[in-house]
Amino acid sequence: MSHVFTPAPVPAIKVRGTSDTFPVRRVYCVGRNYADHAIEMGHDPDKEPPFFFQKNPDNLTTDGVFPYPTQSSDVHFEIELVVCLGKGGADISTEDALDHVYGYAVGLDMTRRDLQGVAKKMGRPWEIGKAFEKSAPISEIVPASEIGHPDAGAIWLKVNGETRQDGDLNQMIWKTAEAISYLSTLFTLAPGDVIMTGTPAGVGAVTRGDKLEGHVDGIGDLSVTVA
């Protein structure tokens, strides 16, 4: 059996300090997972169960460049802790969930906010605003075997040297283990799955030429230029 054309390369993320790469299967994103961000988006965080949307694996980019997308004039940054799974399964318990984590990274969920807003008003899916080319800049992965499982610590983003987002991992409504467990009741998770865990308040628009500098304590930094 042969393919009718050459398959695309498997998207992969570098593992810090090694020549290894982490092959990506799926990218899940947790929506409105920080109370202050939920409030700034006009929602009550106390009344919502977790919800998820997806980006495509090839939306991940590691070259430090975010090309401003077409069909949009309002593109926002969202700094996030990224969880990378080394084991999968369904109906994973909260107690066992962290055993499925291979490592962590720093990521940006870039969003065509104007197109997302139109989709929301029309009751349509968000992919047009979320799953576009190079919409998920990401740092190298740091293995959990080296740093454990961060559940507190600063998460921030600067734009052209000015702090725009400034939160703490302990402010997540659904913690990492809880998000993995809940997600595994909806999908059968597998090695190579990536979970973007949500963003703190302060999201805002970027323009061409902006330099974005993100940080998560215990994991590292991410630097991206808007092209």
Automatic annotation (TrEMBL):
Transmembrane segments: none annotated. It comes from the Bacteria. One of its GO terms (molecular function) is acetylpyruvate hydrolase activity. InterPro entries: Fumarylacetoacetase-like_C (IPR011234), Fumarylacetoacetase_C_sf (IPR036663). The keyword Hydrolase applies. Keywords: Hydrolase, Metal-binding. Residues 27-226 form the Fumarylacetoacetase-like C-terminal domain. Pfam families: FAA_hydrolase. PANTHER family: ACYLPYRUVASE, FLUTATHIONE S-TRANSFERASE. This is FAA hydrolase family protein. It comes from Jiella endophytica.
